[in-house]
Predict the 3D structure of the following.
Amino acid sequence: MNDLRPPDDTLNNAPALTKRQVWIGIAVILALLLAWLVFTPVWPEWVKDILISKKAFVSSILNGLTLAGLYFLVASGFTLVFGLMRNVNLAHGSLYLLGAYVGYEIADLTGYWLLGVAGAFVIVGLLGIVLQVVVFRRLEGDDLRQTLVTIGISIVAADLMLAIWAGGTYQILVPDWLSGTLELPIISAVRSNGSIVYIKYPLFRILVLLAAIAIGIALWLMLNRTRVGMMIRAGVDDREMLSASGINVHAVFAIVFAVGAGLAGLAGVIGGSALSVSPGEDVRYLLASLVVVIVGGMGSISGAAIGALLIGLAEQLGLVYFPTYGIVVTFLIMVVTLAIRPQGIMGSTS
Amino acid sequence: MRLHRRTLMAATLATFTLPGLAMAQDDTIKIGLLATFEGAFTVLGEDSERGAMVALSEAGGMAGGKKIEVIKGSSDASPDSAVRAARKLVEQDGVSILVGPLSGDEGIAVKNYALSQPDVTFINGSSAAQDTTFRDPAPNFFRFSTDGAQWMAGLGTYAYNEKGYQNVAVVAEDYSFPYTQVFGFMAEFCQAGGKVTSKSWVPIGNKDYSSVIAAIPDDVDAIYVALGGADAVNFLSQFQQAGGEAPLIGGSITVDQTVLTSKGRLKDVLIGTPAAGPIADTNDAPEWVAFVEAYKETDGAFPSPSLFAHAYYIGMKAAILALNEVDGDMSNPAAYRAALSALSFETPTGMVSLDENRNAIADMYLTEVTEDADGNLVNKLIQVTSQVNQTLGIDKEEFMALGAVSRENPSCE
């Protein structure tokens, strides 16, 4: 990263560190500490006293990462829509829940889980286009009314889904080749007879994380390497100018909304398989994606990734180490971000 | 605009005339039904309504010669939502009897609200925290459904002596009802010589239990799980996903029909799990069989009633029986309450009567999860502990000295 430093820094002969160097230093120390914690075969007693057990610590880190993956899938659609249309879609959680139910029905009917994932992405994505064309286009430029309408839609959708799928808890069954556990090359404990116990981790959760990373990269490529992505970025910066240069802004809006909604639906199926589906999930994931984008910065995909990482890790570590006050940590992160950097970690001030 | 004004006038007219109409109907009694029709405990709330409706239709919708009008109130298992719903039922709808709420903390909150409404009689639904009736009780709050510590009767001894579990870890939700259940379980288990080496209290409505599961020590013989509704389903399926091998011991609502009927791969981890509670699915007493038949007539019923259906059935039944005693005359709440206190009646699960704190004394059932002939998971009856009281057979002073249930109390590491 040294080459990115402004040239005036190199001219400065004083040993004083720049802000960036301090941050990198802290990050390196933390990463080394974490690597030591994960890869030491047996923890000394004093570490166990603080962190309970290696298995608990490593698992909660991994769970934090996979939960972050899930949050990223939901929040990336949310932040994409906001970034382009300045439209806070408070019905985003309903799209997540609908996707989960649709995915459950398709997987249950056909017996193919992947079909459920694809079906939820397509159906909820199409619904996103309908919402954009029928509702949001009519209220263009009227942010407050758009936001209020989305609250209304979310309430109606929640009751409709309760009427159709009732209040039960659904579990979307993962195919056999995705279920089961994977033995990680991380030592959990050494038995008295010398045999080594490795940490086991559910295979599906690792796939959740990989899927989130793959979709994150795909989104980044779409935004930065394709023509549509160029239009979207131009739209984020200056909507009027983009339409003035002869591009059909409404088509771009519809595409973005479809992708955002589809991602929420897809996340619903993945979340419903890793965890479960029940009424109230819509509000839960809406809240999670709101916190994630507030921390990460509205309208930024990389911000959504950073925010999801922070919130996911905080939630899981909190659950193990201070369960009663775990939820406070999440909101503490949000409050601190709002106080120090109100636009979010990756947000721009403009 | 004209249409607008007309609707407005109609609405105004309706507002003025409706209370008048309601007052004119002396021959109806309003009973509020408060349960969780939203949030993580929605399924439980829906089943509790079925139970209450069975009691109502048994009585033909009448009590003491008057027609019963049931008004529903919905909470989301949080105490403030329960009080809000109770206030609405009492202060706006004007119910004279309120049956509910469903969940532990709600019970304590509604009991405190009952203290401020001396003219209304509160009959508990299925909330089962100990202190709803044990410490600082309300004179107008009655619980015919027993508490969570009573429900555990027989389980601790069975787990230690028959199953041979000596070290147990606890995973439970962080509020008053699971505290009460853990208290009831540990009272017997620790007495028998068992040790509880770790306790994880998780927030209600938690989704992701995998970190909690990983933090459970490897050297425990079994895990005692007191989670309800969606929480229990999430824990169990993630426990299965993580390849969990330790056997489970169930809290009363963890292996209830609301959980056993959920869709997913729960069978492998659940079969053989011992639990205890106010009901047993395979009870073959004729009264229970008759109740199950009546219950199955209701819409969307489970293969067998959950303990919520059972608790609300008993609460509603008690309300009706006492109304019959006073000939439906609610003008004197004291007389109605005296009738309630004196009630001693045969339920689908044996005789129920009240102690001096208006908390029920009833039979408890020790069960084990098995698969029935149709492939449904049910709780098989192992043993009945008859007439368990709130102090679990311990002298009242001595029991009081054990202290209020909490995260730390009791403890036997």
Remarks:
- Residues 11-24 of chain B have pLDDT under 50 and may be disordered.
- Residues 140 and 280 of chain B are 30 Å apart (CA to CA).
